[in-house]
């Protein structure tokens, strides 16, 4: 009898609990891994945007000099004497705004020109002064007419100390094809580093050229230290390519696992519940072994409910950072690029978004509330894109009180904005329409962006129609898959999806919720 009780105890207690533990803990680990991956992806994207914005300042100055006929005329002038050069040099800067433009963009510059009558000094140097400089050798070796050069331990012209430097060079051949004259822009490395640090991300990101670490928001950023190397980094969790000015750079994000406290705050209660279950269930089953069949049924139900709860929490933990980063990025980029104080209005909009997406007491909300969320999000995106983005939100009055899962509409609108409007150079529109047809509710999200090929549209539509939890572990359009899963859940898989897209014209995503699945709120 004792052996039978032990066998029953193992079969109906220990083994089910072990399976339950594995399912719940496995679900938690997968959710955390996915969340961590997206956090690192967001940090890499933020660094990419920040770097592009800083480099753009140097390019603005370079383009104003590159296209100035007045600059080319001065470079080709013959000067009778040093005094003649000095007088005409002074008149040149009195008549141009080049120094003003450079000062506004926090850069300095030099022009290396093939003119023997020029007196070396200040902004103009004879071309032979550049021959021994590393940036000039790099330009010639690579056969580049423009590009970036990161240097350390070099005493450049006009500099007395060794330090990290960022240069942007450009051959001046706009009016003089085949010219050897070169413009050199000196980008403020310290300002660049501070811009990355001020993003206040917990994860360390590194901008690298092959093995050399060029910039970082971490501790290894002193301008007086030689560049470190990628081989010295540990726990690189994510890598993103950055193609800029004929050069391929890489952004590495280190997974330092610094958010263990946040991890415990998110999942600690469930682990405690699981621990309690591991203690109480065996005791109860030993006392009431005669009701083993009934107890087994209860454990099976508890296992299914816990697994479903863990999967739902995984959905919540994924969609929040996936959406919120894009809104925050719009504000942050303009703070860096424009140096304006106009962000108060945008922060107010963002606060509304933050309040809505964190209130998960009920996964559902009304169409009216979701439309307000969409308006707030598009206002943030319009702040980023300016006149490039226009939008229209049209909701039939009868549809405003119907329920949908939170962040459903804004997820599809975000997808239209990112994949439709962002990559399009010309102006674009986003339309959100909700109306009834044959008593069903029809939701249409339309953009006038780049559109998709028929193969791409079919692939996306297949993912939407067959969306399930396993797809969230894969890359690409996680937010859309997440929204489709929740729509299928609340409609018992009766929701219908369709995509109509044409390359160069735009895309329409249609969602039809049958009448019997519609639920009205107050």
How is this fold's topology laid out?
Layout: H1 2-66, H2 69-76, H3 82-95, H4 98-104, E1 107-113, E2 124-126, H5 134-142, E3 146-151, E4 165-171, E5 182-187, H6 189-197, E6 204-209, E7 212-216, E8 236-244, E9 247-254, H7 260-287, H8 292-338, H9 343-358, E10 364-366, H10 367-385, E11 389-395, E12 403-405, H11 408-421, E13 428-437, E14 440-447, H12 454-465, H13 478-490, E15 496-502, E16 506-513
Parallel strand pairs: 1-2, 11-13
Antiparallel strand pairs: 1-5, 3-4, 4-5, 6-7, 6-9, 8-9, 10-12, 13-14, 14-16, 15-16
Radius of gyration: 30 Å
The main sheet orders its strands as 2-1-5-4-3
Low-confidence stretches: none
Name the beta content range. Answer: 15-25%
Q: Mind describing the biggest β-sheet?
A: 5 strands, mixed
Quaternary structure of the protein: single chain
Number of strands: 16
**Number of DSSP helices?**
13
Question: Would you tell me the overall average pLDDT?
Answer: 78
- Class derived from helix and strand content: alpha+beta
User: Fraction of residues in helices?
Assistant: 40-55%
Count up the domains.
2
How many angstroms separate the termini?
A: 61 Å
Q: Please tell me what the overall shape is.
A: elongated
What is the ordering of alpha helices and beta strands?
HHHHEEHEEEHEEEEHHHEHEEHEEHHEE
């Amino acid at each position: 009898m004792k052996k039978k009780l032990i066998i029953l105890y193992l079969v109906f207690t220990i083994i089910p609990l072990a399976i339950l533990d594995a399912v719940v803990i496995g679900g938690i680990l997968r959710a955390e891994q996915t969340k961590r991956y997206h956090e690192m992806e967001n940090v890499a994207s933020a660094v990419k945007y920040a770097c592009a914005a800083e480099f753009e300042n140097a390019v603005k100055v370079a383009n104003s000099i590159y296209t100035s006929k007045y600059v080319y005329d001065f470079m080709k002038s013959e000067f009778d004497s040093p005094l003649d050069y000095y007088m005409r040099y002074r008149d040149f800067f009195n008549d141009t705004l080049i120094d003003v433009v450079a000062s506004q963009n926090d850069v300095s510059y030099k022009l290396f020109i093939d003119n023997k009558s020029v007196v070396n000094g200040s902004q103009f140097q004879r071309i032979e002064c550049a021959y021994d400089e590393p940036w000039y050798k790099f330009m010639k070796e690579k056969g580049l007419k423009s590009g970036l050069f990161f240097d350390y331990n070099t005493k450049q012209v006009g500099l007395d100390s060794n330090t990290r430097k960022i240069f942007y060079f450009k051959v001046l051949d706009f009016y003089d094809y085949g010219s050897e004259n070169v413009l050199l822009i000196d980008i403020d490395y310290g300002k660049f580093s501070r811009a990355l640090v001020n993003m206040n991300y917990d994860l360390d990101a590194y901008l690298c050229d092959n093995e050399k670490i060029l910039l970082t928001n971490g501790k290894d950023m002193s301008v007086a230290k030689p560049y470190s190397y990628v081989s010295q980094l540990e726990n690189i969790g994510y890598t993103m390519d950055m193609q800029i000015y004929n050069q391929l750079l890489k952004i590495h994000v280190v997974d330092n696992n610094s958010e263990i406290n946040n991890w415990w705050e998110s999942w600690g209660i469930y682990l405690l519940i699981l621990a309690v279950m591991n203690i109480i269930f065996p005791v109860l089953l030993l006392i009431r072994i005669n009701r083993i069949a009934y107890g087994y049924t209860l454990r099976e139900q508890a296992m299914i409910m816990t697994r479903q709860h863990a999967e739902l929490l995984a959905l919540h933990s994924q969609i929040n950072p996936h959406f919120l980063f894009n809104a925050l990025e719009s504000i942050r980029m303009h703070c860096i690029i424009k140096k304006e104080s106009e962000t108060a209005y945008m922060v107010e909009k963002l606060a509304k978004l933050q309040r809505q997406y964190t209130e998960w007491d009920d996964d559902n909300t009304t169409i009216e509330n979701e439309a307000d969320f969409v308006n707030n999000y598009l206002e943030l995106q319009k702040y980023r894109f300016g006149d490039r983005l226009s939008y229209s939100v049209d909701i039939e009055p009868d549809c405003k009180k119907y329920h949908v899962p939170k962040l459903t509409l804004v997820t599809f609108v975000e997808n239209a904005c990112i994949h439709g409007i962002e990559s399009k150079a010309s102006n674009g529109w986003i339309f959100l329409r909700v109306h009834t047809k044959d008593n069903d509710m029809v939701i249409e999200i339309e953009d006038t962006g780049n559109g998709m090929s028929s193969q791409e549209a079919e692939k996306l539509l297949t993912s939407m129609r067959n969306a399930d939890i396993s797809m969230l572990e894969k890359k690409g359009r996680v937010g859309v898959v997440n929204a489709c899963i929740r729509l299928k859940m609340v409609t018992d898989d009766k929701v219908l999806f369709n995509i109509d897209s044409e390359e160069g014209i735009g895309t329409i995503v249609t969602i039809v919720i049958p009448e019997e699945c519609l639920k009205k709120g107050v």
